[in-house]
Amino acid sequence: MVFVRTNAFRTDLPQYRNRVVMTLERPTDDSRALIHAAIQGLRQLWRKGYKYHKAGAMLLDLTPKASRQLTLEETPQTEAEAKRSERLMATMDQLNRKLGRGTIQLGLPRMGNAWKLRSEHCTPRYTTRWNELVHVRRNT
Q1: CB neighbours of 5 closer than 8 A, spacing ≥ 6?
Q2: What is residue 120's predicted lDDT score, i.e. its pLDDT?
Q3: How far apart are CA 86 and CA 79, in angstroms?
Q4: How do residues 7-59 score in pLDDT, each as one tens digit?
Q5: 93 part of a folded domain
Q6: Less CB within 10 Å around the terminal CB: N or C of the chain?
Q7: CA 34, CA 18: separation in Å to the nearest integer?
């Protein structure tokens, strides 16, 4: 499910909120297919002229891979496609574990884009990051 909404507290601005459930061709754990579905959903929801406050994607109907069952209408992935996808996702997971979470990500904005991540209101991480620990110096 993909959703968008404007800020309900900004009554001076036009309001809009909507969501759409994107049905996948087949069950998958491939990030590329999930991102593609999310982008398709966002294209359906996007309306010009609104100042969006929040957007997101939620995964619904999750099932273990071992319980996966195709319907009569689904086209199964070829074995080669499935192995390639599995190897790629495993490699991304391995690199992120080895080099730190978020090292390898799909669909990141490039430097200089009009949109960039705003992180001025981040929660302090001094309980989990040594380099963000508060330093206190005593004047003598």
Answers
A1: 16, 17, 18, 52, 53, 54, 55
A2: 63
A3: 10
A4: 999 999 999 999 999 988 878 888 888 989 999 999 999 999 999 999 999 99
A5: yes
A6: C
A7: 19
Q: Return the structure tokens found at 92.
A: 């991304």
Give the domain extent around 64.
2-98
In a domain, 135, yes or no: no
Round to whole Å and give the CA distance between 43 and 82: 27
pTM of the model: 0.62
Q: Is residue 120 part of a domain?
A: no
57 φ/ψ sector (left φ>0, alpha ψ -120 to 50, else beta): beta
The number of folded domains in the chain is: 1
Q: What integer pLDDT is reported at residue 116 of this predicted model?
A: 58
Q: What is the DSSP string of 73-123?
A: TPPPPPHHHHHHHHHHHHHHHHHHHHH-TTSS-SSPPPTT-S-----TTPP
Taking alpha carbons only, the member of 80, 83, 67 closest to residue 27 is: 67
Decide if 132 is inside a domain.
Answer: no
Between CA 85 and CA 91 the distance in angstroms is 10
